[in-house]
Every structure is written in structure tokens, then in C-alpha cells.
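Q: Hi! First time doing this. I have a protein sequence and I read that you can turn it into a structure. Is that right? Here it is:
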Amino acid sequence: MIASIPLEDDLKDAEQTLRGVIRRTPLLSSPALDREIGARVVVKAESLQITGSFKMRGAYYRLARLDPGRQSAGVVAFSSGNFAQGLAAAGARLGVPVTIVMPEDAPAAKIKATADWGAAVILSQHGQQNREAVASARARAIAEETGATLLHPFDDPLIVAGQSTAALEMLEQAHAEGVTPEAVLVPVGGGGLIAGAVLACERFDPAPSVYAVEPAGYDDFGRSLSAGERLANDRNAPTLCDALQAQMPGVVPFGVARGRVVEGIAVSDANVRRAMALAFRHLKIVLEPSGAVALAALLGGSLPQLKGRTVAVLASGGNVALDDFARLAGSSSLN
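A: Yes, that's right. Below is the predicted 3D structure, encoded as C-alpha cells:
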């Protein structure tokens, strides 16, 4: 039976299960970036992970924990792209049939990449409705019709356990280099990555402070942390961050993060573009907008309390078309 939140045994099992399966992505730094930010910054480049984001971690671990009968019946999930690719790749490796419901306005590159990994892709049409709500309802209906196991991209304790390995690796790498981060900045959509990061950070002494970073207009996690209860986004706000448009925090991630995350930070599209350009200039990596939000939180004075301190940043993904990257990062105004 799966516990309602990840247990220590789940975290250890995820670490063992994923060893040799996922890529141990590099921890990057740059003195020039430090000078520009005004802090000592180390960046975990999950943009270089298999399928281009951290999502392969939780997806593979979740599929690996299914019993053989459920594996053969296949799985279905909804995703705007990064979990879709991670689950498709995990299914291909484990021999599990995967169906993904993706919003019709998901990036074309992510739709194609998901199909290229062998998943069956179904596009949902949401009109003026919340796209996550429409896609999730369609996925649920497919699961009921076919007998496939319905998987949630972030509201699942085993998904969270798998995602915890990204922050665990990051802190292990930092300590191996003689760096002790005082704060960890994490991109947040539904909360699977930050819940995993919180659990990973608590395994270190001293444990760094954890900050939730979201795009402006989709700051439901930060508002929920302040309110002490889960709050939803009340509109479809425009944002560059297609992977961070969750309707509200997941029950499992919020249960883990509540009382443990210092605060939520909402970042502007302008600072996201600037962060993409900074990562390319100083670290030589390509980040999609959603993957750059944690770095963006260090721009524009959003976190003055971190100036001069040592900060670890999770750069969560790099799945962006070349033309879009050039347009967004190239249009950024850098001093």
C-alpha cells in the first residue's frame, strides 16, 4: 500500500532504482554569474536530463513501482509536455504502454517528442476552460474506458519520491565541491519537485531554506503557503511558462511543503527571459521559460535577503524550440 506522503524508505528506494537509469546532471557555476546576481550561485542543470527535464525521475520510479499486471495494462496521464516526455521515455524503457492527454496548445516540439518516445498522444480542446482541468478529465475517462492506470504528474507520493533525487544529487554535488547552500530555489507548477526538494534538504545538516518560485499569475502555491490551505488560480493568465500552469497545488505536495517552505516568489516574464539569457551566456545551457524561473527569482530584487549568500538553483528543463529560445532570450535586456 502506498503511503499518503513519501516515506524515508521510498526516498532511499527511488535513489537506488534510478541509479544508472537517469543522468546525473552537472552542477554548474560561474564567477561572472555570481557577480551579476550578487550571490554565490550553483545551478543544477536538469535541462540536460534525459528528455530534457527532471520529470523522467518521478515518471520512471512510479512505473517501476507498478505491479506487472498494471504495467501490462498500460498507464494514462495528462501533461503539457515535460511529464509527458518523461513518462513516455520511462514506458519505452520498461515496456509499459503509455497514453498522454496533452492540451492542444502545448508546444508542438513537446507533442512531437512525446510521440517520438512511443506514447499515444491525444490532444484535448479546452477553449476558455482551464486546460489542466479539461485534460485531466479526459485522461480519467480514458482510464475508466480502457482499464489503464491513471497517473497524476505531481499529486502522487511516489512521483514526489522520484523527484526528490534531483535536489539530493544537487546538494551532494555541492558539498563534494566544498559548497554549502543556504537556500534552494525550486520552480513550482503543481509541487512535485518542491515537495521532493524539501524532503531531500531535510536529509542534510544544516538544511537549506527552500523557496517556491512560480510565474506571475500562477502563484497558487505561494498564496496557498501563506493562507495555510490550497488555493486555486482564478484565471488563465498569459505566461511564457507553459509547464507551470497547474490549477492549484497537489494535495500530496502541499502536505509535504506546508510549514517547510520559507515563502513563494512570483516572477515576471521579463525576468524569465533575462534568466534564460544569463544561463546561456554564463553557463552555456539552454533553458525553457519554465526551467528558468528559479534563476529569475534572483533578478529584480525579488529576494534581497539572499544577496551575498550561497544559493542553489534547480534549472528544471530545457525543452524549447530553437526559434522560440532565440526570440525569448535574444529579446532580453541585459545590463
